Amino acid sequence: MIVSLLSTIDPNKISFPKLGIEMTIKSEAFSILGLTITWYGILITIGMMLAMMYAFSRMRSFGLDADRAIDGIIGGVIGGIIGARVYYVIFHWADYAGDWKAIFNIRNGGLGIYGGLIGALIIGSIVCKLRKVRLLPIYDIVSLGFLIGQCIGRWGNFMNHEAFGKNTESIFGMTSGRIQTWISRNYPDGSVIANQPVHPCFFYESMWCLLGFIILHFVSKKAKKFDGQIFLMYVIWYGTGRFFIESLRTDSLYLGTVKISQLVAVLSVITAFILLCIGFSHVNRMGGDYQLYCDTEESIALLKEADARLEKTKESPETAQVILAEKEEFDEEKVNDIIAELNTESPQREEELKAEKEKQINDLLKEIAEADIAKETEPTETEADTEKTEG
């Protein structure tokens, strides 16, 4: 009876009664050639792209060569998607046992964040090992990317009218036709009332991840003491928030009577806290002898190698090396061309690159000067004939 009454409510209309906000939110964004593209997939993709952009913008500060690390990050993204889906399907197996095709359809949701993290770490770590990328620094930077992706990705749950909690009198309380229908079917005992506002858990987690990103971003720049510290702090931050937010949710995954996410959160936070304490203790014992990976000779050498590869890709037929190898004549105009090329480069290039370019110009000027001297001292054809005659 209750379900039939709720069926008259617009399923796509979401409202925040105490904020006076009401809007129509459909899960489908648009269709292309009969394929429906959902907002969930779009937002997940945007989150991943922004996370990768941030990670690559900070690779050098963590001592990592982006060319090597990109393979690990791509592997982590693939592993994360697979792991998140596998995690969700395992704990909802009854919904997929008779429909194998549905297992591969993630456009409407159905991803477990902890499975995603586990899958990303496993596959990403394997690829990083193969590419000889240091794991602890890459863990640090991808954990910041995780927070960006989770912050944005959670709004995919909003578009799907999911990831909500129990009834609340909070100013942020929300409701919709789809939410009410789901509650009436899954809580027939009335422990959660369908037509009353519920906690927007997706919003709480999104804001928690945003705050965590801001904090850890500044810690990574000003207060990082050892490699792996940011990753461990991420696990503690996210796990703590997820434990309390999960206690509000009505659509949690269960193992018996225990919420899986809360159990994983507790174990993760305890483990990360112990390892964080061990890390700080190790740094204190070593005093000034501890080096972050970005300060090691290995990292510096790899970055110089990466700079050399980048510089090689910038070479053109007008560079000094080609001019010296292929041209017999030198003049000031060619030098000015190289100087002009230097002036158009990005002002953010490393000081070492500046020095190398300046050395290149000085070497070219030296070659020009030597060539000019050689021409001045070389006997003319008449002088040479005279010498032969006198001889």
Widest β-sheet, arrangement of strands: 2-1-5
Spans of at least 5 consecutive residues with low confidence: 1-7, 322-330, 386-391
Distance between the termini: 124 Å
The total count of helices amounts to 16
Query: Please, what is the average pLDDT?
Result: 82
Overall helicity: 55-70%
Overall outline = elongated
Determine Rg (CA atoms, Å): 31 Å
Query: Helices and strands, in N-to-C order?
Result: HEEEEHHHHHHEHHHEEHHHHHH
The total of beta strands comes to 7
Report the β-strand fraction as a percent range: 5-15%
Q: Oligomeric state of the chains?
A: single chain
Largest sheet: 3 strands, antiparallel
Q: Which structural class should the secondary elements be placed in?
A: mainly alpha
Question: Please, could you describe this protein's structure?
Answer:
With 391 residues, this protein is mostly helical. 64% of the residues lie in helices and 6% in strands. The protein is built from 16 helices and 7 strands. It has helices spanning 2-6, 39-57, 66-91, 93-96, 100-103, 113-130, 135-159, 177-186, 201-222, 229-246, 260-286, 297-314, 320-326, 332-343, 351-377, 381-390; strands at residues 13-16, 21-24, 28-32, 35-38, 175-176, 254-255, 258-259. The strands form 3 sheets. It has a 3-stranded antiparallel β-sheet. A hairpin with a 4-residue loop joins strand 1 (13-16) and strand 2. Helix 6 (113-130) packs antiparallel against helix 7 (135-159), helix 7 (135-159) packs parallel to helix 10 and helix 10 (229-246) packs antiparallel against helix 11. The longest helix has 27 residues, at 260-286. The N and C termini lie far apart (124 Å). Mean pLDDT is 82; it is low at 1-7, 322-330 and 386-391.
